[in-house]
Automatic annotation (TrEMBL):
<dbReference type="GO" id="GO:0000184">
    <property type="term" value="P:nuclear-transcribed mRNA catabolic process, nonsense-mediated decay"/>
</dbReference>
<dbReference type="Pfam" id="PF10373">
    <property type="entry name" value="EST1_DNA_bind"/>
</dbReference>
<dbReference type="GO" id="GO:0042162">
    <property type="term" value="F:telomeric DNA binding"/>
</dbReference>
<protein>
    <recommendedName>
        <fullName>DNA/RNA-binding domain-containing protein</fullName>
    </recommendedName>
</protein>
<dbReference type="GO" id="GO:0070034">
    <property type="term" value="F:telomerase RNA binding"/>
</dbReference>
<feature type="domain" description="DNA/RNA-binding">
    <location>
        <begin position="275"/>
        <end position="384"/>
    </location>
</feature>
<feature type="region of interest" description="Disordered">
    <location>
        <begin position="1"/>
        <end position="101"/>
    </location>
</feature>
<feature type="compositionally biased region" description="Polar residues">
    <location>
        <begin position="43"/>
        <end position="83"/>
    </location>
</feature>
<dbReference type="InterPro" id="IPR045153">
    <property type="entry name" value="Est1/Ebs1-like"/>
</dbReference>
<dbReference type="GO" id="GO:0005697">
    <property type="term" value="C:telomerase holoenzyme complex"/>
</dbReference>
<feature type="compositionally biased region" description="Polar residues">
    <location>
        <begin position="21"/>
        <end position="35"/>
    </location>
</feature>
<dbReference type="InterPro" id="IPR018834">
    <property type="entry name" value="DNA/RNA-bd_Est1-type"/>
</dbReference>
<dbReference type="InterPro" id="IPR011990">
    <property type="entry name" value="TPR-like_helical_dom_sf"/>
</dbReference>
Length: 661
């Protein structure tokens, strides 16, 4: 018992010696592994990815020999690309780590890359990229014409080939955008259209081949979409100069993933939301590009009204997307087909909105005017009831309806449409808005009580001038029904859009002369007066600048994002108004306080229109808007060519006042 402390001490010393011995052995093992790894790399040992790609050398039956030849060539291409990467590694000078006596390594010494080395690096990357790209094009073209199904190994090889192409593109973008790169080197990606080539040959063509071979290629399509999505995400973070392109590519990939989720509707909804998220970001960055609006229209299915809005917006954007003409016919086709008349009205979708879209289909395709009038009157008769039923949902629906009607006034951007050309010729950019406004004030000093083309609306729907006249009549008859709901704040967003449209049209007098008689000026004045409260400072609103908060989520109203990018809305917003925007998921959340800036915006627009002293005037003593004598003369002119009845009372040309309940 007396010796027990000595025994304990000896045991502790023994454990310490054993622990030190094991630590030393572990360090030696780690050092040996690291040295073997360095020796393997110096000897040029093949990478695991190259070993996986080289599957085409395996023996298969005679029916696959033709494909094996191309695939072996593809493997050779990958080997050449790999050798280019090995040469690129040796081009950058590095020093071997210095081994210390204790088995540890110092940090490797590095030297800044010279401009010549960087140029050689980019040249070597591009050489390998071109070879892999050519092989991808050849094999995809060959397999697109091949009716036979591909084996699992063949799909894996094709996926590996396209993965290599994406990696080569990634290396090219990183090298050409290196901090040491000069301007000419950084411009190479744009000069050689590298983002477009990467999407076309590295992703899109292979996705189309996979889609063509469905359902056998479903798993491989999933794998490739996930891999391409990760690659584009890295480019979004690493090469932000092409941010708009990467964001749209991510939206396209998510839409492909959504399209193949035919069974699992939960997955389909998820990837629809992902695609919409990216396309909304793309629309924020490029609001004038109609192509992005077309993408959003595709995602809007099966919402007929939302599809109509986005398709029509794609056609009347600052940069219209003409391919949307074919896509919008897919929307109108089932509605206009007599054989499908019984199935076009769903109990799960409001009939009034279906009839509205159908009426636009008749107007777009320029069919019989009697069919349009029947559908338009049915919609107008149901509109007031529909607004009351859907309640707050009409805030968004009302904007879709109103903006689609104004797209019809622009004749959906058809070739030869009159009003879009007027806006293009005016050179409407934000920096010239003040000059354009001054010219408009001078033009409206002596207005004429005419509306160009109003006499053509009873003839038919054969020309652009007739479409504009009928669309104007329909749009402002719809507005008349909406304005009749006094006190209903759910109609305020659509009224806001209408006032913005009238304000922009007034700045282009030639366009305003084609719609001014159809506008219900008297009803509009009555509606505006309900927005003026005793504490409303109309003097500040009338003489102030564009009413917008300096920052924050409420700087823009929800409808601002919907009409942003339309050819007529360019003059409405001040410069940098959309520089600070809320996230997409925050825009749909409308707080009760939003009614205050929206009301101020409507009153500000009305005061600006009143300064023309043509259609509306504002009486500072009574603090009320009222229609001018000129507006009453225009109403009498419009009454002579009335072809639609106002659904509020069934009689054209009269006003009714609706009291708040």
């Amino acid at each position: 018992m007396m010796n027990s402390p000595n025994v304990v001490t000896r045991l502790k010393e023994s454990r310490i010696r054993n622990s030190r011995s094991r630590t030393s052995q572990d360090n030696d093992i780690s050092s040996n592994v690291a040295q073997r790894s360095l020796r393997d790399n110096d000897n040029g040992s093949p990478t695991p990815s190259n070993e996986r790609i080289n599957i085409f050398g395996q023996t298969r039956n005679a029916q696959q020999q033709d494909y094996d030849g191309d695939a072996s060539s593809g493997s050779h291409t990958l080997s050449v690309a790999s050798s280019h990467r090995q040469r690129r590694k040796s081009a950058v000078a590095t020093h071997q780590p210095i081994e210390q006596t204790n088995g540890m390594f110092l940090q490797p010494e590095t030297h800044p890359i010279t401009e010549e080395q960087l140029v050689n690096e980019v040249r070597a990357i591009y050489a390998g990229l071109v070879m892999v790209e050519k092989k991808c094009i050849d094999i995809v073209k060959q397999q697109s014409e091949n009716p036979e199904e591909l084996t699992v190994l063949q799909w894996q090889a094709l996926t590996a080939l396209h993965r290599t192409l994406l990696h080569e593109h990634f290396d090219f973008f990183l090298a050409s955008n290196h901090p040491a790169a000069n301007k000419s080197l950084k411009a190479l990606a744009k000069t050689y259209s590298m983002p477009a080539r990467m999407w076309r040959y590295g992703i899109h063509s292979f996705l189309e081949l996979l889609r063509k071979k469905l359902p056998s290629s479903l798993d491989h399509m999933h794998t490739f979409i996930y891999m391409a999505y990760a690659n584009i995400t890295l480019l979004l973070e690493s090469v932000p100069d092409y941010k708009e392109t990467w964001i749209e590519c991510l939206g396209d990939l998510a839409r492909y993933r959504m399209a193949i989720a035919e069974v699992d509707m939960y997955d389909r909804e998820i990837y629809t939301s992902v695609a919409r998220y990216w396309y909304t970001k793309a629309a924020d960055l490029n609001p004038d590009v109609g192509r992005v609006q077309h993408h959003l229209a595709v995602l809007a299915r099966p919402n007929l009204l939302q599809q109509l809005f986005y398709y029509s917006k794609a056609l009347v954007s600052v940069q219209p997307f003409t391919n949307a003409r074919d896509s919008i016919l897919l929307l109108f086709g089932p509605l206009l087909d007599p054989a499908k008349a019984a199935a076009k009205y769903s109990k799960y979708y409001p009939r009034a909105l279906t009839v509205f879209v159908e009426a636009h289909g008749v107007l777009f395709t320029r069919q019989d005017v009697s069919t349009f009038l029947r559908l338009a009157e049915e919609f107008l008769s149901e509109l007031d009831k529909h607004v009351g039923l859907v309640g707050p949902l009409f805030r968004e629906q009302g904007v879709y309806i109103t903006a689609s009607n104004y797209a019809a006034i622009f004749d959906y951007g058809h070739d030869g449409a009159e009003i879009p050309s007027m806006f293009d010729q005016a050179g409407l950019i934000q920096t010239r808005t003040f000059e354009i406004l001054e010219q408009a004030y001078r033009s409206w000093q002596n207005p004429s009580c005419v509306q160009v083309g109003i006499e053509h609306r009873t003839v038919g729907i054969n020309s652009s001038e007739q479409v504009v006249s009928i669309a104007s009549h329909f749009a402002f008859t719809t507005l008349d029904v909406i304005l009749d709901r006094l006190g209903d704040r759910n109609t305020l967003p659509s009224v806001h859009v209408s006032l913005a449209f009238l304000w922009c049209m007034a700045m282009v007098p030639e366009s305003m002369a084609r719609i001014q008689a159809d506008v219900p000026w008297e009803r509009l004045a009555t509606y505006l007066n309900t927005l003026i409260n005793p504490d409303t400072d109309m003097a500040e609103i009338e003489n102030g600048a564009f009413p917008a908060q300096e920052s924050g989520a409420s700087r823009q109203l929800p409808e601002d994002f919907l009409i942003h990018g339309l050819s007529w809305s360019r003059m409405y917003y001040p410069p940098n108004f959309f520089s600070d925007m809320a996230e997409d998921d925050e825009r749909s959340i409308e707080l009760p306080s939003v009614i205050v800036p929206r009301t101020r915006r409507c009153l500000w627009l009305a005061s600006k229109i009143a300064k023309f002293n043509c259609w509306l005037v504002y009486d500072t003593e009574s603090c009320k808007f009222c229609a001018t004598q000129f507006a009453h003369e225009l109403a009498a002119l419009s009454g002579q060519y009335q072809i639609l009845c106002q659904a509020s009372n069934g009689k054209p040309g009269t006003d009714t006042v609706m009291t708040e309940s």
